[in-house]
Design the sequence.
């Protein structure tokens, strides 16, 4: 069964870079047909998709965040990472790593990691 | 971008009664070549990640109770819980996966009356 787990610092200061890692178990980042990505949720608010990437390097970004987002992938450890630079308090959120199928088989985001709260505060 | 609008924002329903949540997309999410609507519904309980309930507008994910059903096509969709149980208290989100940026509705909070 595919499982995802986020890890990373929980507290950042404004202007720093948010760096989170998602460890994948029960599946491979190199599997065709699956995208891997990130979604965030500010406390008490709704869901915002950030980015999704495919094993061939295809990456889709939310235009609202694209200029600050970098994705990296390590297939040898089955992990992928999110970097979000120049954070502000508006970036305070629970960050989830997710997987989803691609193309006409797209069903929605499943599974989700448990989420990790990142707080940006001076 | 696809703007997803849910109604109502909150809903209180008696146990055993029907709950209905609506979702409207600013653009059609119907892919004509395969006649599938790329619309998903999620349930989120406090402190938990969202859980995929329904995809392609009306297909229940494995393990989801059959009291949950989805309907609609094009731009208007509905999630129905036929007989509300206490464990259904949650926030429900619709989401389009027709195209990027993937977008969610603002959420509907479902409570017991």
Sequence:
């Amino acid at each position: 069964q595919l499982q995802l787990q986020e890890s990373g610092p929980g507290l950042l200061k404004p202007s720093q870079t948010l760096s989170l890692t998602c460890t994948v178990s029960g599946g491979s980042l190199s599997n065709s047909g699956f995208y891997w990505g990130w979604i965030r949720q500010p406390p008490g608010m709704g869901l915002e998709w950030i980015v999704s990437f495919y094993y061939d390097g295809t990456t889709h970004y939310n235009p609202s965040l694209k200029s600050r987002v970098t994705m990296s992938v390590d297939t040898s450890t089955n992990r992928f990472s999110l970097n979000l630079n120049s954070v502000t308090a508006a970036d305070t959120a629970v960050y989830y790593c997710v997987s989803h199928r691609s193309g006409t088989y797209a069903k929605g985001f499943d599974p989700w990691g448990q989420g990790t709260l990142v707080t940006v505060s001076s | 971008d696809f703007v997803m609008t849910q109604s109502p924002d909150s809903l209180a329903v008696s146990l055993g009664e029907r709950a209905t949540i609506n979702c409207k997309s600013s653009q059609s999410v119907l892919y004509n070549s395969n006649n599938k609507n790329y619309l998903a519904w999620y349930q989120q309980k406090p402190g938990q990640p969202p859980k995929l309930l329904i995809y392609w507008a009306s297909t229940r994910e494995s393990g989801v109770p059959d009291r949950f059903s989805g309907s609609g096509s094009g731009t208007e969709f509905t999630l129905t819980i036929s007989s509300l149980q206490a464990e259904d208290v949650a926030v429900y989100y619709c989401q389009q996966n027709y195209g990027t940026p993937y977008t969610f509705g603002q959420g509907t909070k479902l409570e017991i009356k």
